Amino acid sequence: MKKALISALAMLLAWAASAQDPTTTWPYLYPEFQEGTAYLKDQSRVVRKYNIHIRHDHLHFIDKEGIVREVVPGDVLMVEIGGDAYYNVNGEMMKVAAKTDKGLVVAEILGDFAALLETGGAYGTSSTTSATRKLSSIDTDSQINQSYMLLQQGKSDGAMVDLVTKWYLVGPSFRIPATKKDVESLIPEDRKAEWKAWQKSNKVKWNKPESLSGVVEFLTNL
């Protein structure tokens, strides 16, 4: 019983160590690069260890020499990392949250680096100066062409970065933010009454992927 408890505690501590939040020195969605499959526009598939960089939602991978590289944003259609899927929307790899027969609800997940500019500096240091120092490790996406091992060693050295999620709707003829204003801009005049009635009947929740998938269906049937 005691050995089982010690083993469980060790596993919990290992999980806690790996479940690290993003920092300015480790600006990635995942605490480690994970094996995944990228589906490219030339119809090829590439299996590598991938991660999503939270400054621009670009796809990074580790090459054979252990160096971090970036996939050209325009070359990739989607990527599967672990049990998650990301779809290329306007050059950003957005996480698939819900699917319909004709479209997707995806999440843009980016680091809130602007918030670092709003924090006060310590010991009389101006907030701008303090934030500049915090951001210096990421301003030029300095993880590209660096050793993966060295990046891992310094992942705790930077400032913590909060994540901001925005929802998008993707269909055959549209890729738009999931807002009432953006959706209504796509509704023809002769269908606006139908749209108004549909909203009232379905009570759209604009921050819930399951609810937004119905909006995708409505738009694809226009």
What tags apply to this protein structure?
7 helices; alpha+beta; disordered N terminus; 29% helix; 10 strands; 222 residues; single chain; elongated; ten-stranded antiparallel β-sheet
Q: What's the SSE blueprint?
A:
Blueprint: H1 2-18, E1 34-40, E2 45-53, E3 58-62, E4 68-70, E5 76-81, E6 84-89, E7 92-99, E8 104-111, H2 113-117, H3 127-135, H4 148-153, E9 163-171, E10 174-177, H5 180-184, H6 192-202, H7 209-220
Antiparallel strand pairs: 1-2, 1-5, 2-3, 3-4, 5-6, 6-7, 7-8, 8-9, 9-10
Task: Provide structural commentary.
It is a single chain. The chain has helices spanning 2-18, 113-117, 127-135, 148-153, 180-184, 192-202, 209-220, and strands at 34-40, 45-53, 58-62, 68-70, 76-81, 84-89, 92-99, 104-111, 163-171, 174-177. The protein has a ten-stranded antiparallel β-sheet. With 222 residues, it is of the alpha+beta class. The protein is 29% helix and 29% strand. Residues 1-19 and 120-131 have low confidence and may be disordered.
Mean pLDDT: 85
Helix content range of the residues, please? 25-40%
Q: What is the distance, rounded to the nearest whole angstrom, between the alpha carbons of the first and last residues?
A: 62 Å
Write down how many β-strands occur, each being a DSSP E stretch of 2 or more residues: 10
Largest sheet: 10 strands, antiparallel
Please indicate the percent range of residues in DSSP E strands (runs of 2 or more): 25-35%
Q: Which consecutive residue ranges, at least 5 long each, have pLDDT under 50?
A: 1-19, 120-131
The number of helical segments is 7
- Strand order across the largest sheet: 4-3-2-1-5-6-7-8-9-10
| Cα-based radius of gyration, to the nearest Å | 21 Å
* Helix/strand order, N-terminal first: HEEEEEEEEHHHEEHHH
- SS-based class: alpha+beta
Shape: elongated
